[in-house]
Amino acid sequence: MDGEPSATILPLSITTSRSALLFLVDEDGRFAEAGHTGQLLAPEQGVTLSPQFAHVMERDGDILDFDAVRSGKDRSGELAVVPSWMLDDERCWAMVPLMHFDRLVGAILLSRPPDKRELDWEDFDLLRVVGQQLASYLAEQSGQQALMESARFDEFNRRIAFVMHDIKNLASQLNLLASNAERHAEKPEFRKDMLVTLRTASGKLQTLIDRLGGYRSGQDGSIEAVPLNGIMAGLEQRFGASGRLEIDADNVSAAVARGLSVVQGDADVDLAAYPDNSFDYAILSQTLQTTRRPDLVLDHLLRIGEEAFVSFPNFAQWRIRISHMFGGRMPVTKQLPHKWYDTPNIHHVTIDDFRSHLKERGVVIQGAWFLSGGRPRRAQIANLRAAHAVFKLKKG
User: Fold this and answer.
1) DSSP secondary structure string, 133-151?
2) Helix 121-184 to helix 188-214 angle, to the nearest 10 degrees?
3) What is the β-pairing status of strands 262-264 and 244-246?
4) How far, in Å, CA of 9 to CA of 119, rounded?
5) Is 231 left (phi over 0), alpha (psi -120 to 50) or beta?
């Protein structure tokens, strides 16, 4: 599978087609092949759609039935603009325009299903809805990328302003040194001070060069997996957690074997027994969504700890959204491996839900980390892209 996998898989699951070809706008403004699933429904890689064909799809926004076009039906001039290779290839069955409001952002070419049936009204309705939803996702992704690029430029501009300030200071310092050298070059004390000044200026210039060199990539390109359990264990170690409350007996035994102080108990019930400010730090790791009253558990956590760390899976991540909307089933992922009937997760909290709850309760967010597949995600797009969240909190 190549290109944008989710954009081609979803229509396939509805129509039982085996292959699909995705067209998106490239850097030159053309609708070009961006990926495909199954067999390639084109004579060659990198095919593009003519501006006339794209105009007809954008103007009408209709699903194109190739069998109808082959039979001579020409409702709005599509017969003159459809590529000949699509009409000649009997595998080409339907073209789904991806319309975001009144703008065409892409198109998906679907292959004929194995049962070789005709398109019916239900296919047209479902594919139209799917096309609009996919167009919305693509437009949102494009907007987020533009925001991220803009944020990177803003960050660079802010940093380069400090660099330019340092360069101007060095230039003024060297100009003053050159001016004084014309009058005092013969004095040993001046020459001694001049050498010190030149060494300092040289060191500052090298520092500036190193900083400018660091802006070229922003990071070294390496990706390191960041296990969430390891993060929470590190927080316990760093901030001196003196005990743990664990409901699972096997986990209690494993923690005791590692030398941790652990008490078996239920966060919904037993946190209420702890006095106020019993701990400097209280940590709730991947548990909030499994409690009966997460709001009360969070209140107790902030009551018994001066500060609190809370981590949880984000149920608004894009993979979960797609599983619900197009699969029609509860998601099963690496992060959420349970079936609907045995999952411990009874409150499907999202990052935005949690942020809103904290705001309502007046809880102060002292830090937040958002992760997906071991990669950090920006706070602005965390609710869509992050699989997990970790918050550092304090009572307001």
Assistant:
1) HHHHHHHHHHHHHHHHHHH
2) 170
3) parallel
4) 18
5) alpha
Using a 10 angstrom Cβ sphere, with 0-12 exposed, 13-18 middle and 19 or more buried, the burial of residue 326 is middle
Rounded-to-10 torsion of CA 83, 89, 92, 96: 0
> Token pair for residue 42?
């084109």
For residue 344, how far is the Cα from the chain centroid? 25
The one-character DSSP state at 325 is I
Nearest alpha-carbon partner for 389 in 244, 241, 284: 284
DSSP 80: G
Alpha helices by DSSP H, listed for the chain, are 5-15, 51-60, 66-70, 84-88, 121-184, 188-214, 228-238, 249-257, 267-270, 294-304, 318-322, 351-361, 382-385
396 residues of the chain, pLDDT tens digit each: 444 445 555 565 566 788 888 898 877 778 998 888 888 888 888 899 999 999 999 998 899 999 999 999 888 888 899 999 999 999 999 999 998 888 898 999 999 988 878 888 888 888 888 888 888 888 777 777 767 777 777 777 776 776 777 777 777 777 777 878 878 878 888 777 777 777 777 777 777 776 666 554 444 434 344 454 555 555 555 555 445 555 554 554 454 444 444 444 567 777 787 788 877 888 888 888 889 999 999 998 899 888 889 999 999 888 888 777 766 777 777 777 888 888 888 888 999 999 999 999 999 999 999 988 778 888 888 888 888 999 999 988
Tokens encoding 340: 């609907």
The Cα 64–Cα 93 span in angstroms is 8
Using a cut of 0.70, tell me whether the model's pTM lies above it.
no
Q: Residue 239 and residue 85: Cα distance in Å, rounded?
A: 66
